[in-house]
Design brief:
The complex is a heterodimer. Chain A is an all-alpha fold. In chain A, 73% of the residues lie in helices and 1% in strands.
């Protein structure tokens, strides 16, 4: 192990990963950033226009709609997913018969391709032929048969719910892994102290899963800023871009309208917003820990 | 010694990588070169905008098959991908000068490729084949020229309008419409009887063909050049009237309730199952309609005329579809160049036209081919409309003479009013802003 501790060997071993990372992550970001400063249709030579695309972005109502929808999806997903995945993990963590089968089933939606998830949910949420509205009408609750998708308001909320369903198992599995790391002795000690279930949950489980919560929130933030196929399948961003999220709008601008330069500006801004959201969350959670420490 | 032993795996890995890179590199000089003069066999790479040409573009596919049958020394390597992916691929390949030999492309992008110097000049080919030029319908031939240079040829004629279900019109005692007022009267009756008047699906925003022809009836082609140059606004009184008509149709209930979540293909199904009176589409649906139970009840209509329209209201829409273009690199390989020219000659010949007709695609050339009316009643009805001398085609389809970006704004604006999202004025602004941002 001696030579492994030498700097040059460490660098040598990291080199392949660094090369791949640079080629597939860093370089495309640099290239996209360059194209975002150009007017480019994908053909010929890009024309350098400075920050014009970014100025146009600020005045583009569809960009703001996409951003608003993405934030709504993120909010809904966080509110729905974190508690439900956590409690699902608590349930699955019990030693009951068949719990392994349940764990596998709980992970199932996460392995279905998002485009199929979108397709499945079209048949559930379509206002005209979807299961939800047909069911509500059958039981006499027509007044609750809203335009879940395809309208002007509810689509991002529906997308949030669909995405929560899709990644529930994945997030719950991470919680489950976190739960497995909590030493049983702590619970045994709390039993001796006479702690009940709720007290154990509040004073042992949740604090000890602090890092797991953080990882899951960061994962959900990045998931939500990457949502594409589900929206594409549910509404294709419609009607008239009102249900676009940032990535579908970027795709639409770049590949449908052929405005590669402008599309790359949307992509760069999306990246920056994701970084800001994640950094803000990490910063805030660090502060909280430091305060508690004091 | 110890160090040497431990470093061995890394050197082995490095060697393996080097070997892999060599293995993945260009063909060696001894490899046979496709299409070189030394070889008899020539392969033409042909990229097309549908994933399954055999089923989705049977006329084209059969033309290619027939050509290869008659020219066994030429192989056409068809590369089919769906339209969006196809366009993306072509743009990527244009950046690395790796365009296919022949390919389908959107008109605006084809023009950009021509301006970037990546397309073969087809003018010498047509200069050498004057008999071919004489047979062409002129608007088919001249559309893809810049400064007298022919950079593309239409893939097929694009014939668009409304299919109508005559049985439904008869059932509800509604006269087949001619004017916009007739159409509104028909819509009122269908709405009262829970019949969808015009099947449409906003999830595929490009599906507004008949409405684009209506826009031409408000003087689109008189104005569009000056509008794009910024000398006039898209937001003008004539175009406003067009959007107001769409808005009125929406208020009357002309469009399906689930228009926002429905795709074009679902709209076609609505029509095919007899639930809609009209379908905004084109001649490409003739075969499908003919194979359905509606075959004897369906007719074809160019769309309504308007009292307050601009210019000739008897405008049909028989325009050149997006072009087939040839990569400039083809001229570097004489054998391939000759093979490509041979293919074009066949594609636009009478033999090619007959294959098109057999597959219910009207020919691009003046051609006295026969249509079996009993076998193809739907197609025959379209051809009957195409042959009407009192109707004249618009020069092109409005979205095909502007950039992809403006075309998309045009689709958005039309569907925006149909969906009830935009007022007519807002719809106009959507397009006007996109034009001014270019």
């Amino acid at each position: 192990m001696h030579w492994l501790s030498k700097k040059r060997y460490i660098c040598f071993m990291l080199l392949p990963t660094l090369l791949v990372y640079s080629a597939y992550i860093i370089l495309p970001i640099i290239i996209a950033s360059y194209y975002s400063l150009t007017r480019f249709s994908g053909i010929g030579v890009p024309e350098f226009i400075g920050l014009e695309n970014y100025q146009a972005l600020l005045q583009d109502p569809f960009f703001w709609v996409s951003l608003k929808n993405t934030v709504i999806v993120l909010g809904v997903t966080l509110i729905v997913l974190i508690p439900s995945a956590f409690f699902l993990a608590l349930l699955l963590n019990r030693d009951v018969k068949g719990s392994n089968v349940l764990k596998a089933l709980n992970f199932a939606p996460a392995v279905i391709a998002p485009i199929l998830v979108g397709l499945i949910w079209v048949f559930i949420l379509d206002p005209d032929m979807g299961f939800v509205n047909v069911f509500l009408q059958k039981i006499g609750l027509e007044q609750l048969a809203f335009q879940w998708i395809g309208g002007t308001t509810l689509t991002p909320y529906s997308v949030g719910v669909v995405e929560s369903w899709r990644i529930l198992g994945f997030i719950a599995t991470i919680f489950l892994a976190g739960l497995a790391t909590i030493p049983r002795e702590i619970y045994e000690a709390s039993d001796i102290d006479g702690a009940n279930r709720v007290q154990k949950l509040i004073f042992i489980t949740i604090p000890m899963l602090n890092e797991t919560f953080k990882i899951n929130v960061i994962l959900i933030i990045t998931f939500c800023f990457k949502i594409f196929e589900t929206v594409l399948q549910l509404t294709n961003g419609g009607p008239n871009h009102l249900s676009e999220v940032l990535v579908t709008y970027m795709y639409n601008v770049t590949f449908i309208s052929g405005e590669y330069g402008y599309g790359m500006a949307v992509a760069v801004v999306t990246l920056l917003i994701t970084i800001v959201f994640t950094a803000l969350f990490i910063g805030l959670s660090k502060k909280r820990v430091e305060k508690k420490g004091v | 010694m110890m160090k040497r032993v431990k470093l061995f795996p890394f050197f082995s890995l490095l060697l393996l990588m080097v070997i892999s890179v060599i293995g993945c590199s260009n063909k060696s000089a001894t490899d046979p070169v496709e299409g070189s003069e030394a070889s008899e066999e020539v392969t033409i790479d042909f990229a097309i905008h549908v994933a399954n040409p055999k089923d989705q573009e049977p006329a084209f596919y059969q033309t290619v098959e027939k050509f290869m049958e008659e020219n066994p020394d030429i192989t056409i390597n068809l590369q089919g991908t769906d339209q969006q992916e196809h366009i993306r691929n072509i743009k990527m390949k244009s950046q690395s000068n790796a365009l296919p030999d022949i390919f389908w492309m959107l008109p605006a992008s084809a023009q950009e490729l021509e301006e970037a110097g990546q397309l073969l000049d087809l003018t010498p080919f047509f200069d050498n084949n004057p008999e071919l030029v004489e047979k062409f319908h002129m608007n088919m031939f001249e559309t893809y020229q810049i400064d007298g240079k022919q950079y593309g040829m239409p893939y097929q004629p694009l014939v668009t309008g409304f299919w109508y279900n005559e049985a439904l019109f008869d059932q509800y005692n509604v006269d087949l419409p001619e004017t916009y007022e007739d159409l509104t009267e028909a819509v009122k009756v269908f709405e009262e009887n829970d019949v969808v008047s015009i099947a449409k699906g906003a999830r595929d925003p490009y599906s507004v063909w008949a409405f684009l022809t209506m826009l031409s009836r408000y003087g689109y082609f008189d104005k569009i050049d000056v509008i794009v140059e910024g000398e006039e606004s898209f937001n003008n009184d004539d175009f406003l009237k067009f959007y107001e008509k769409i808005d009125e149709l929406r208020e009357l209930g002309a469009f399906p309730a689930n228009i926002t979540t429905q795709s074009y293909f679902q709209a076609v199904e609505t029509f095919m199952t007899g639930e809609a009176a009209l379908l905004d589409a084109g001649i490409w649906e003739a075969k499908k309609i003919e194979e359905s139970k509606l075959a004897n009840d369906v007719g074809f209509w160019w769309g309504p005329t308007f009292d307050d329209g601009v210019g000739n209201q008897n405008l049909s829409s028989i325009v050149p579809a997006a072009p087939l273009v040839v990569g400039k690199h083809v001229e570097d390989d004489q054998a391939k160049y000759e093979a490509v020219m041979k293919f074009l000659q066949f594609y636009y010949s009478e033999d090619g036209a007959q294959i098109m007709l057999d597959n219910q695609v009207p020919p691009m050339i003046v051609f006295d081919g026969e249509i079996d009316e009993e076998k193809h009643p739907v197609f025959a009805k379209v051809v009957e409309q195409m042959n009407r001398t009192d109707w004249k085609s618009q020069p092109n389809q409005p979205d095909l003479v502007v950039s992809e970006s403006i075309a998309n704004a045009l689709y958005d604006s039309i569907y925006g009013v149909m969906n009830g999202i935009y007022t007519p004025e807002e719809a106009l602004d959507i397009v006007a802003n996109r034009i001014s941002g270019q």
